[in-house]
Amino acid sequence: MQPLTIFGDSGSGNCLKVRWVAAHLGLPFTWREVDVPAGGTRTPEMLALNPPGRVPFVVLPGGEVLSESNAIIAYLAEGSALIPHAALARARMLQWMFWEQYSHEPAIAVRRYQLHYLRRDPADLDPRLEERGNAALALMEASLSKTSFFAGDTLSLADVALVAYTRMAHEGGFDLTSFPGVRDWISRVEDGLGIGPYQP
Fold it and tell me: Which UniProt keywords apply (predicted)?
């Protein structure tokens, strides 16, 4: 049986989530780098495997294909300590994972992409991206004043989902020195996952 195959872009926080979880859980996997800016997700081979034409996606050992980063990490972590056993803590984890994709990533990751990859002038960007990103970071800061991690006092998939782009937020023009609780939490998550500090 073949190991898990992860198709992803190493510059994408959404893709890194999957690699981190697989490595943290000791799951054997093969990483397939996809050049997204060069249209790597839109080739006939890629679209045959994953019709939505995005990364990450995985080919499971049995040949099944699964896409969407948070769905993938939830599948990989089933039965592990990354998913809380208690119903409320598990629901809290899901709450933050949904919020990450709806309210966090669309501001922080999008602004990072436009500044870091497209090299756009900050003055040309939609100012709402900065406003929404800072509001997301402020909400995270407030939550972390109550608990060490987002689903309670232990590392969960909520933290994996949120740390991916938060640790890159400075590349989107967000000043994390204004959010000391978030900065401390990033270090805790990096230590817990064994991934080390962010290095572009």
Answer: Transferase
Residue 47, classed as helix, strand or coil, is helix
* CATH number of domain containing 121: 1.20.1050.10
Amino acid 58: pLDDT: 98
Instruction: Find out whether 85 and 146 touch, Cβ atoms under 8 Å.
Output: no
| Per-chain mean pLDDT for the chain | 96
What values do phi and psi take at 56, rounded to 5? Answer: -85, 160
Domain range enclosing 145: 87-193
Q: Which residues of the chain register pLDDT less than 50?
A: none
- Which pLDDT belongs to residue 1? 52
Structure token pair of residue 103:
């309210």
> What does the alpha-carbon distance between residue 153 and residue 185 come to, in Å, rounded to a whole number?
11
